[in-house]
Automatic annotation (TrEMBL):
Entry-linked InterPro entries: ATPase_AAA_core, P-loop_NTPase
Descriptive protein name: AAA family ATPase
The ATPase AAA-type core domain, residue ranges: 104-205
Lineage: Bacteria, Pseudomonadati, Pseudomonadota, Alphaproteobacteria, Hyphomicrobiales
Stretches that traverse the bilayer: none
Source organism per UniProt: Devosia albogilva
Length: 388
């Protein structure tokens, strides 16, 4: 809605039944446009008045909207009707671009170098893809929904102008979880190469796991949160997880640590307590506060704050519903214990980690190697796993 190329009514149409509140709608934007205003943001307003959206002097930008309709089978879409029935004159068939072939093959994990694209000469924007298998051609009418979606979306992105805004509805729709991860990796690659701004909506944890914390925003009851909230933690925040005690922590490492501690020392509480990663400090504090002020909650939540960012001497005191785990990072605490006791623990590590192919001496050596070269405590266990 911030740019001329997208009509507001495409996303916010007004029905004469039930949409009375839209008479007072007004949406304000802050845009960055360095050539126009090098030192400050531009403020624009879109208003819905007299049953029509009105925007004055809005900037232009290439916007690529990848709608949810992309996963509907081709046979159910009216735009493909021209490709049915007798052959029409002016059919143009060409090869996919090199980048489309390269990146779509990587996401789909199959070679599509023999695939082509077709359109009728008088309608160049209405295209259909053609596959090949064992020497025989077949049209997009016979593609799987995920295959068609990936090829079409990547082809559109690769042919988009640099610096475009790309909007994707439900990025995981029709895709296998592995393909979701590969596709999100591709989107980040394309954003860097083509200087794109990519925004997608998702309910997929696989998609979220591939995005850095600063790129993840969650909307909960008119509140927005930035950080690596998991789908499960979002359900806990909104109160949709009933009759459970809730602990919010910063990341999955602390989640496993707390779950193991509850299992060993928590007694009956281990069966009724759920632990959720909610992002680093101060996000974990905000999420815990929101949960505790949510009238839908059943029991209060506790937030556990790491010591790698929060400093009691420099930061504001923690609220009563949060606890400080102590200085340093949890990964470093656990790894330092393993390192200090590596000789005594090596046989147990060999057994529990199924390292029968390695003798105890090598296990001790690899622990020492990681200890000597590890500068970031958050990746020490990743570095250790790579040794195997």
């Amino acid at each position: 809605m911030a740019y001329k190329s997208i009509r507001p009514g495409q996303f916010f149409p007004k029905s004469f039944a039930g949409d009375n509140s839209m008479a007072d709608w007004s949406i304000e934007y802050e845009l960055i446009d360095k050539p126009t205003h090098p030192t400050q943001n531009i403020t624009k307003t879109a208003k819905f008045t007299k049953s029509k959206w009105r925007r004055d002097d809005f900037p232009d930008r290439s916007v690529l909207y990848i709608e949810i309709q992309r996963t509907v089978p081709a046979g159910e879409l009216t735009k493909f009707k021209r490709f049915l029935g007798p052959a029409q004159e002016g059919l143009k068939i060409g090869n996919l671009s090199e980048n489309t072939t390269k990146y779509a093959s990587a996401v789909l994990d199959k070679d599509i170098s023999n695939y082509r694209v077709a359109h009728i000469e008088d309608d160049p924007t209405n295209i259909i893809y053609i596959g090949k298998h064992q020497g025989s051609d077949y049209s997009q009418f016979h593609f799987g929904a995920g295959e068609a979606s990936i090829i079409a979306t990547i082809d559109r992105i690769e042919n988009a102008k640099d610096n475009s805004l790309v909007l994707i509805e439900e990025v995981e729709n029709g895709l296998h979880p592995i393909a979701v991860r590969l596709f999100v990796q591709y989107l980040q690659n394309a954003a860097r190469r083509k200087r794109l701004q990519v925004v997608f909506t998702t309910h997929s944890q696989d998609a979220i796991d591939e995005v850095p914390s600063e790129g993840i925003w969650a909307s909960i009851h008119s509140n927005t949160w930035n950080g690596k909230l998991s789908i499960a933690s979002l359900r806990a925040v909104t109160g949709s997880v009933p009759n459970e005690k809730v602990v919010f922590v910063e990341d999955t490492f602390v989640q496993e640590w707390v779950e193991n501690a509850l299992g060993r020392y928590g007694g009956e509480a281990a069966e009724t307590t759920k632990v959720y990663p909610a992002g680093g400090y101060p996000n974990v504090v905000k999420v815990t506060e929101f949960h505790n002020t949510n009238p839908a909650k059943t029991v209060p939540a506790v937030g556990l704050v790491d010591g790698d960012i929060y400093d009691p001497a420099a930061n504001a005191p923690l609220p009563e519903y949060c606890r400080f785990l102590g200085g340093g990072s949890p990964e470093a605490t656990v790894f330092e214990y393993i390192y200090d006791n590596r000789v005594d623990l090596c046989s147990l590590i060999r057994q529990r980690c199924l390292l029968s192919a390695f003798d105890e001496e090598r296990i001790v050596q690899e622990i020492e190697s990681v200890h000597n070269g590890a500068h970031d405590p958050h990746v020490v266990f990743k570095r250790l796993s790579e040794k195997a």
